[in-house]
Amino acid sequence: MNPWILASRPRTLPAAIGPLLIGNILALQLESFSWAIAVASMVCALLLQIAVNLANDYFDFKNGIDTEERLGPIRVTQSGLLDPQKVRNAMIFCLLLALVVGSFLIWHGGWPIAILAAASIMGALGYSGGPYPLASHGLGEVAAFIFFGLVAVVGSYYLQAGDTSTAAWILGSAVGLLNAAICLVNNTRDIYTDEKAGKRTLAVRIGEAQSKVLYQALVYLPFGLIIAGFLLGLLPGLPVLLTGLALLMARRLSSDFTQVSGAALNPLLGRTAKLTMMFSALFSLGLVFTI
User: Looking at residue 161, which CATH number applies to its domain?
Assistant: First the structure.
């Protein structure tokens, strides 16, 4: 496989697409809805996700975290497939492209979107780099929840509607929990090598046994949130019903996660990302049919 494709980590990209899909489709029935805004917001989110992946590859190599003992998929910098400076430059290029696309969104959405854009870029750089890397201090899952959950869903809805809604906050929380689960799989797989390298991820801090318990909460709670939203009259019934189909996948993932460790968790990383996409796609499909 092309090393640049490896560096972009395609299996993680649903983490960026899913929340933007829900946020935009939630606003589809509004007169103010714009396909140009929808496409631009998705492109911006994808560029930021790729930038985060490149930054993680570069900074983890630079900080001595990625070594030959690594259990996860190939890291292009550590393995020598790509020069570290090229990976760093590609990260910067993706951030600049995201800023260019984001400028259109800022022009449309005003100062609230400007603040979110600045925070997102700082989050992308600060996830693995900077003086206080979030991922190395047990905040990776929190960052995933905030940026690829709340910010992505509520922000994309705000761009279309000029306001927020309780439904957007509920759905942002739900998708954010699923994206945090993706991060947790990665960190639980690397728990021993990260601890050895001094990287204090959440999984390292709470241990493998508690990480497995937390994973179950992260993949089940989103369904509880949307059911609660329906019972409170905040979410329509058809999207909630359709999304229930993804609960079968969540149940299987939860069971498999409790039974394997180390490198055997690699397939679950991509499968958890697919759960995020399935959840988002099914709910969005249900929304389309309720318009």
Answer: 1.10.600
